[in-house]
Recover the amino acids of this structure.
């Protein structure tokens, strides 16, 4: 499996964020009123332009009305099976 770069992971995170936003029928401004993030920054996360901190992920989840783990429910394109090399 080919590993993907950080920009692609941010893009996939953004797509998941947008998917939840659309499913919940929320605007960027509505999400912003429900959390401590400016609506223009939410758009930057959706577009994969900036990387969210863990506290930002919690705020985004609060604004969307979901558990933070739902924002990470996508294929990272990373092999997480870290077999120890001897």
């Amino acid at each position: 499996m080919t590993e993907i770069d950080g920009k692609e992971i941010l893009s996939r995170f953004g797509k998941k964020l947008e998917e939840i936003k659309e499913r919940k029928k929320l605007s960027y401004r509505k999400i912003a009123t429900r959390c401590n993030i400016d609506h223009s920054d939410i758009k930057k996360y959706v577009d994969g332009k900036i990387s969210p901190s863990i506290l930002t992920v919690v705020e985004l989840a609060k604004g969307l009305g979901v558990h933070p783990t739902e924002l990470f429910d996508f294929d990272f394109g990373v092999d997480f099976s870290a077999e120890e090399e001897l």
